[in-house]
Amino acid sequence: MLDRDTFEAIEAYALGTMPAAEREHFEERLRTDPALRAELEQQRDHIRAVELGGLQRALKDIAQQQAASGNRRSWTPYLKVAAAVAVVMCAALWYALRPTTGERLYAAHFSPDPGLPVAMSAADDHAFQDAMVAYKLEDYAEARAKWSALLTERPQNDTLRYYTAMAALGAEEVRTAIPLLEAVRTDASSHFADQASWYLFLAYTHEGDTTNANTIRFDPADAHAAAAATIQQAWR
Amino acid sequence: MEGVLSHTAQAADWAEGLRCNNARTLSALYTKHFPAVRSYVLQNNGSEDDARDVFQESIVVLWLGVKEGRVVPEADAGGFLFRVAKNKWLDVLRSAAHKQMKVVHDDRIAERIDEVDDLEERIVRLRGVYDKLDDKCRQVLDQFYYERKDLATIATGMGVEEESIRTIKYRCMMKLRAFRKAIRGEEERHG
Fold first, then answer.
1. pLDDT band at residue B106 using 50, 70 and 90 as cut-offs
2. For chain B, which end, N or C, has fewer CB atoms within 10 Å of the first or last residue's CB respectively?
3. By C-alpha distance, which of B139, B110, B126 is closest to B176?
4. For every residue of chain A, which 3-state class applies, written as one string?
């Protein structure tokens, strides 16, 4: 594998963003190092392939915009009627599917855990880091699948329990996060215990389970104490 | 210049715009030159979708030609796009499914251009490379290499740290490298 510094030097040269002094030195290396020349050619090719993908996406967007503006012109007379019908249907649908009090409170107070920084680290936690990358990109299903697999191997690991629960919350599978959060909250040695208490409180709120939610006590100094009190107030 | 497509001399802002992946240039080329291609395809048994497909392919050929110095900035972009699109549509009409159809304006059939054939072969190969990337990689790499956004802007837009984007970019490019290495190994094994 090409190390990241060399990769980024080649990239800067290929993109023309390398400072002049470094550039001279790099060109000197290129003259004497055929392997580096081959890497540069390959990387230029890969960048071009990515640019081509971007171009195709951009062209598709332009075509869609043009088709939409053409359609807007020809359909304008019918749009008002369609809009009125849509408003009535949306109102009816919203009434039928409106969120419960718990779901509304949860939505108002839930913000996802930002995750851990993804750094270049040892190969043994690559799987964990890959899942973290997916989590940060809000691909919660993939993150959850990867962390769940690791959790099977290390069922007592509080970090895995916590982030598997976070991925479940992100994927709106709130109920499945509850047992994992319970386990982290009761693990006194876990750095995630306080955060787990808060998310557990929110998860019970989401499920309308005020009895269990009220068993979770927050220290007045806890960052979430005020929000928890607001939610309890709303229930009452 | 040998091996370079040269046409009517014109202001060359469009070429610089394509070289920099400028969204406005792309949109302007589309708006200005698509109607001619659309008329031609519709007159020759094609649909709106057919016209859009051959036109977009022609833009890709023009873009790659400019990027790789095989289409000069003085070239007539509209003429180039029309000729490539027309050849592409005639290829479709010559295919088995369309053999019975009569082509209007047959006398205007454009000559084949070797340079364009080369570019098309290269496009097929580059697409093969891009296909190996998953959506997550495409999302990050597209913003960095195509849209030319810096890491901090991408990170802010995606709600993650700059370091994470830097790592994702590196890993995704290494995936492509590993893929190419595997292909080379395969080719060497088979002769």
1. very low
2. C
3. B126
4. CCCHHHHHHHHHHHHCCCCHHHHHHHHHHHHHCHHHHHHHHHHHHHHHHHHHHHHHHHHHHHHHHHHHHHHHHHHHHHHHHHHHHHHHHHHHHHHHHCCCHHHHHHHHHCCCCCCCCCCCCCHHHHHHHHHHHHHHCCCHHHHHHHHHHHHHHCCCCHHHHHHHHHHHHHCCCHHHHHHHHHHHHCCCCCCCHHHHHHHHHHHHHHCCCHHHHHCCCCCCCCCCHHHHHHHHHHHC
List pLDDT tens digits, range B47-63.
999 999 999 999 999 99
Q: Residue B13 corresponds to which tokens in the numbers above?
A: 């802002």
Produce one character per residue of B50-88: b if its CB has 16 or more CB atoms within 10 Å, e if not: bbbbbbbbbbbbbbbbbbeebbbbebebbebbbbbbbbb
CB-based contact (8 Å) between A186 and chain B? no
- Domain A111-235 homologous superfamily, CATH: Tetratricopeptide repeat domain (1.25.40.10)
Reported confidence tier of residue A69, pLDDT bands at 50, 70, 90: confident
Backbone angles phi, psi at B68, to 5 degrees: -100, 15
Residue B91: Cβ within 10 Å count: 12
Q: Is A6 on the interface with B (CB under 8 A)?
A: no
- In the DSSP assignment, the letter for residue B46 is -
User: Which chain B residues are Cβ-neighbours of A53 within 8 angstroms?
Assistant: 127, 130, 133, 138, 141-142, 146
Closest to A159 (Cα-Cα) out of A119, A113, A201:
A113
The string of pLDDT tens digits covering residues A13-33 is: 999 999 999 999 999 999 999
Inter-chain CB proximity B170 and A4 less than 8 Å: yes
Handedness of CA B172, B173, B179, B181 (dihedral sign): negative
ipTM for this model:
0.86
Neighbours of A84 (CB within 10 A): 10
Whether the CB of B103 is below 8 Å from some CB of chain A: the reply is no
Closest Cα to residue B172, out of B128, B152, B142, B151? B142
Cβ-defined contact of B129 to A45 (cutoff 8 Å): yes
Residue B185 pLDDT > 70: yes
